[in-house]
Every structure is written in C-alpha cells, then in structure tokens.
Design goal:
alpha/beta; globular; binds 2-phosphoglycolic acid
C-alpha cells in the first residue's frame, strides 16, 4: 500500500501569526481524521520554526517550499537545506513550476537542490508538469518524462525510496481549471512507468500527488484513481476547513 498524502503549499501567503493560526487549526482537525492520511504543511521560511513547534506530536509534518543549491557561504538571500532540516522540517518542495518559470530553475539547478535536500535528510516533493501549449501540441508526456529523467534518474536507489513526486499541469495551477480524473490518472501512470524503467519495482511505492486547483469538490474523484496517491494543494490549503476536507476525501 502506498502512502496517502495531502500536502499544503502556502506559497507566499500569510503572516507568521496567520500561519500559526492556520497550522493550529489543521493540527486540531487532523486529530479527527484517520492516521492513514499523511498531512504536510509547507509554509514560507519565516514561519517554519513556529509551525514545527505547533505541529509537533500532532501527526502533521512540515515542509519548506524550496532550498538553496549550495551548502553554505556567500549566497545572499538563500536558505540552505541544512538550516531547514535543523528546525525539524522533514520535506522540501523542489521544481515547482513557479520556481521553474519565474526564477529560471532548470534540471541542472534542481539536481543541486536535490543533492542538498538528501544530504540533509529532507524528503523532496519533486514537481513536474507541462504547460498548456505543450499539452495542446501533444508533447505533455515527453515533457514530463524529460523532467523525471534529467533529475530523478540521477538518484541512488536509496534516495529514490524516499522520493515523493507531484504532477502539476501548469495550466491547472491557480486557474480553477482542474485536470479531469482520467487525465490525471493517465499522466500518473506514465510517471510511474518512467520511474519503473529506471528503478524497477520500487516505483510501485512512490507516492505521486496531483496538484492544480484541487479542492474538496474534486479531490474524491481524483484520489479514487489507482495512481493518484494524494494532492499538493495551493489555494485550498489556505483555509484549514477546505484542506482538511481534501484529506477526508480519501475516506469516502
Ligand atoms: P493550486 O496550486 O491548488 O492553487 O492550483 C497548486 C500548487 O501550485 O501547488
């Protein structure tokens, strides 16, 4: 059985005080939900230490939204994987399409970030996904395959065992336009086949999350698909109620 995961990507939203309230509400609501659903919240860097404190012992884990390519040194404005891990953070989102698009992250950058994440004991949530024009041109499977081959294929088998993948079609992020459950399943199966081509049977255990306008009203249908193991949630993770509802969608 693969892990069921609902991860909230808060992006650049909430003040530390608002984030603390949100984390408290998620932790309180999580108590009512089966331990079989893993909850992760990914607040901005400035909130991490307080959110780790609030969620300790509640079954809600904490992730960062990015980390530096380098270990330490003269890199003004950067935050290292070691700094993040030392706070008790367990996960890090890497390769989110907003980072690829607005901050020029390439596979080369991401290989270095992955190395830092693993070296410091963080579990990466590696994001892949095609743009609208790539889907319209029928190139979506090739684009996602290349995003996996260029980064994930460099992992050792031991590193691969800890990986989480998130499929986020760029045209569905923050747009209100969700991939249909069939489109998600088709791509998730393609991702798992691509991973299996390199890592064999271990790919059966890799959680593959769907992201892109996932909300309480569509989560149930998406999560019912064989290769959809949960969600990476943006907008709907900023309200504890909707985030928790998405987690409950597994139980229906
Ligand atoms: P969204 O974002 O749920 O607001 O579409 C998802 C994400 O970018 O992780």
């Amino acid at each position: 059985m693969r892990r069921k995961i609902v991860a909230g990507n808060w992006k650049m939203n909430t003040t530390p005080a608002e984030g603390a309230e949100l984390a408290k509400a998620v932790a309180a609501g999580k108590k009512e939900i089966c331990d079989c659903v893993n909850f992760i919240v990914c607040p901005p860097y400035t909130h991490l230490s307080e959110v780790v404190r609030i969620t300790r012992g509640t079954g809600v884990a904490v992730g960062a939204q990015d980390c530096a390519t380098e270990e330490k040194g003269a890199f003004t404005g950067e935050v290292s994987a070691r700094m993040i891990a030392s706070l008790g953070v367990e996960y890090v989102i890497l390769g989110h399409s907003e980072r690829r698009q607005y901050y020029g992250e390439t596979s080369e950058t991401l290989n270095r970030k992955m190395r830092q994440a693993y070296a410091n004991g963080l579990t990466p949530i590696y994001c892949v996904g095609e743009k609208l024009e790539e889907r319209e041109d029928g190139r979506h499977f090739d684009v996602v395959k290349a995003q996996l081959e260029e980064v994930i294929y460099h992992l050792t088998p031991e590193q691969f065992e800890r990986l989480i993948v998130a499929y986020e079609p760029v045209w569905a992020i923050g747009t209100g336009k969700t991939a249909t459950a069939d489109q998600a399943q088709e791509m998730h199966a393609h991702i798992r086949r691509t991973l299996a081509a390199k890592f064999g049977a271990a790919a059966e255990q890799t959680p593959i999350l769907y992201g892109g306008s996932c909300k309480p009203s569509n989560a149930g249908e998406l999560f019912a698909k064989e290769d959809v193991d949960g969600g990476l949630i943006g907008g709907a993770a900023l309200e504890a109620d909707s985030f928790l509802q998405i987690g409950k969608a597994f139980l229906k």
